[in-house]
């Protein structure tokens, strides 16, 4: 039994010390095909950077210097493509000139098909060599994606076309006309929201329940007002990054219709999105929103917008005349990029139809996982452990010669209840704690605030160590308890006298008139 038990303990410790490994800066092989950063923002239309080449003709085996230059930028991705089919795979390979600023990428299992940055430091020029393959097409065009900051980037900036000497003249493909899209207008709110009509004209979610955003900067406020076939939404909360709400079919994050108000460059970007599992929100077009407005004051973000109740032609937008759990979350943001919410979201106690009769409701930030975890740990350590200690303390002398399953009866509660019985609720409590911690890590490449991640990690660490101790140590404790059966004797008033060293047990004698 010792070996399996030891192996299980080692496995548990290994789970405790596992870490999350992310790609170093610039290693983006997943973007080789489309050359589009996974930044959830639209690229800029007019490029301000340029690509130059050392020669306009090439032969298989030639090495051509390619230079990407322009205003300071932080990231880039450079590839060579068939000029007559720029959506095709990368062509040829690259050789680095400055390995501190650039690195080779492996695309389609081939090393060196693309070049990217090695760090996010600012740079104004990148130089590399392109090696022409023996099977090169007649015409080659270099393409570059350049990132200035998280939400500002350009995709597939083209270079001049280079051609083989005997190739037919290159014909520029006809440009396709892009449909003109209009940007929804956004105005500025002149005064804060008011909760005076909550329960009368507005369906409101507030925390604390009766707070008013007009007078309290710490008030979490969300209101819905139906107007014919649309709903006017108001959202307010203290945050320097973003505030958001989501409509969900259950009390778990994932597959939800979400809306964010993101503080960026002294303005607020109102953005509809969709939550797929527990990953980063998928940002959608703002074309479904109307009458958008925002306000920033005293560390509070406020925004409002109008949305049609039903949007059957738009994917992932829920109909507002059905019942949902309502989530409210806030967190940090930088350059338009949001990070995981800094605390547990506020979640309504039940589902509500925001287009129904006006109500004034609240919510809780304590998830069912945390509540179940607390209950199980209370049962484990406040009941079973206490019973085991009391039985061993007061009934040892009474049951000193009684045995059950080969063990003294007085020791059975100590062994079973102190060490083994808590393992079941403690194991489930630890599992719930692990789920909570893993949920905090599921957003890739995020910066989880220390107040959230470190607290969860330390709590989980303590639980795993406690469970491992309870599982691995009992036999050693039992052996220690049976070494040197010389007791420390106690008098009638339970004050103990000195006893020989090396004994881990204490026998409490009963008063003489009651002794057996």
Strands, count: 29
End-to-end C-alpha gap: 39 Å
CATH architecture title of the largest domain: Sandwich
Q: What is the overall number of helices?
A: 6
Radius of gyration: 33 Å
* Total discrete domains: 3
CATH topology name of the largest domain: Immunoglobulin-like
Q: Classify the helix fraction into a percent range.
A: 10-25%
The chain-level structural class is: alpha+beta
Overall residue-averaged pLDDT value: 77
Shape: flat
At the first level of CATH, what is the class of the largest domain? Answer: Mainly Beta
Binned strand content:
25-35%
Low-confidence stretches: 4-24, 176-181, 437-455, 478-516
Major beta sheet, specifics? 8 strands, antiparallel
Descriptive account of the structure:
This protein has 516 residues and is α+β, with helices and mostly antiparallel strands. It folds into 3 domains: 29-163, Reeler domain (Immunoglobulin-like, Sandwich); 186-364, Immunoglobulin-like (Sandwich); 368-482, no CATH class. It has 6 helices and 29 strands. The strands form 6 sheets. Strands 15, 16, 17, 18, 21, 22, 23 and 25 form an 8-stranded antiparallel sheet that branches. β13 (220-227) and β14 form a beta hairpin. α1 packs antiparallel against α5, α2 (368-394) packs antiparallel against α3 and α2 (368-394) packs antiparallel against α4. It is flat. It starts with a helix and ends in a 9-residue tail after the last strand.
Helices and strands in order:
Elements: H1 2-16, E1 50-53, E2 63-73, E3 75-82, E4 93-96, E5 102-107, E6 110-117, E7 123-131, E8 139-149, E9 152-158, E10 162-163, E11 186-188, E12 203-207, E13 220-227, E14 230-238, E15 242-248, E16 256-264, E17 267-275, E18 282-283, E19 289-297, E20 300-308, E21 325-334, E22 337-341, E23 346-348, E24 360-361, E25 363-364, H2 368-394, E26 403-404, E27 407-408, H3 411-420, H4 423-439, H5 450-472, H6 474-481, E28 488-489, E29 506-507
Parallel strand pairs: 11-19, 12-24, 28-29
Antiparallel strand pairs: 1-2, 2-7, 3-6, 3-8, 4-7, 5-6, 8-9, 8-10, 12-13, 13-14, 14-20, 15-16, 15-21, 16-17, 17-18, 19-20, 21-22, 21-23, 23-25, 26-27
Helix pairs in contact: 1-5, 2-3, 2-4, 4-5
């Amino acid at each position: 039994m010792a070996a399996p038990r030891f192996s299980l303990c080692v496995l548990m410790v290994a789970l405790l010390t596992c870490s999350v490994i992310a790609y170093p800066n610039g290693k983006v092989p997943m973007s080789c095909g489309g050359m589009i950063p996974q930044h959830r923002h639209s690229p800029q239309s007019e490029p301000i950077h340029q690509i130059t080449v050392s020669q306009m003709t090439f032969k298989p085996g030639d090495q051509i210097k390619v230079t990407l230059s322009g205003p300071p930028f932080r990231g880039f991705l450079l590839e060579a493509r068939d000029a007559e089919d720029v959506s095709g795979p990368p062509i040829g390979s690259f050789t680095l000139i400055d390995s501190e600023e650039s690195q080779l990428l492996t695309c389609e299992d081939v090393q060196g098909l693309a070049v990217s940055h090695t760090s996010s430091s600012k740079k104004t020029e990148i130089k590399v060599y392109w090696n022409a393959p023996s099977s090169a097409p007649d015409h080659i065009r270099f393409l570059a994606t350049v990132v200035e900051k998280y939400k500002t980037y350009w995709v597939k900036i083209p270079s001049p076309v280079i051609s083989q000497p005997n190739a037919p003249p290159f014909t520029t493909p006809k440009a396709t006309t892009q449909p003109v899209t209009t940007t929804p207008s956004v105005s500025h709110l002149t005064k804060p929201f008011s909760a005076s009509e909550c329960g009368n004209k507005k369906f409101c979610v507030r925390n604390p329940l009766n707070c008013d955003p007009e007078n309290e900067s710490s008030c979490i406020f969300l209101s819905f007002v139906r107007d014919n076939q649309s709903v006017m939404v108001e959202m307010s909360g203290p945050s320097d990054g973003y505030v958001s709400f989501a409509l969900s079919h259950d009390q778990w994050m994932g597959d939800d219709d979400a809306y964010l108000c993101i503080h960026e460059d002294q303005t607020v970007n109102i953005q509809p999105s969709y939550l797929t599992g527990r990953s980063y929100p998928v940002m959608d077009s703002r074309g479904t929103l109307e009458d958008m407005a925002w306000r920033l004051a005293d560390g509070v973000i406020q925004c409002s917008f109008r949305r049609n109740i039903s949007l059957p032609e738009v994917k992932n937008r829920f109909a507002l005349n059905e019942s949902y759990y309502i989530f409210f979350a806030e967190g940090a943001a930088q350059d338009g990029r949001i990070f995981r919410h800094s605390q547990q979201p506020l979640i309504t106690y039940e589902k509500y139809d925001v287009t129904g009769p006006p109500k004034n409701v609240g919510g809780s930030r304590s998830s069912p996982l945390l509540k179940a975890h607390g209950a199980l740990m209370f049962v484990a350590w406040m009941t079973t452990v206490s019973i085991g200690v009391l039985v061993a303390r007061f009934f040892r002398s009474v049951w000193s010669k009684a045995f059950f399953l080969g063990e003294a009866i007085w020791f059975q509660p100590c062994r079973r209840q102190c060490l083994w019985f808590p393992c079941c609720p403690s194991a489930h409590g630890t599992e719930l704690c692990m789920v909570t911690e893993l949920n905090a890590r599921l957003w890739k490449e995020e910066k989880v605030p220390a107040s959230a991640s470190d607290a969860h990690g330390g709590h989980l660490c303590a639980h795993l160590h406690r469970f491992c101790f309870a599982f691995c140590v009992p036999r050693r404790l039992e052996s220690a308890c049976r070494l040197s059966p010389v007791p420390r004797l106690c008098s009638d008033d339970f004050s103990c006298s000195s006893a020989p060293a090396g004994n881990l047990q204490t026998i409490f004698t009963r008063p003489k008139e009651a002794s057996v």
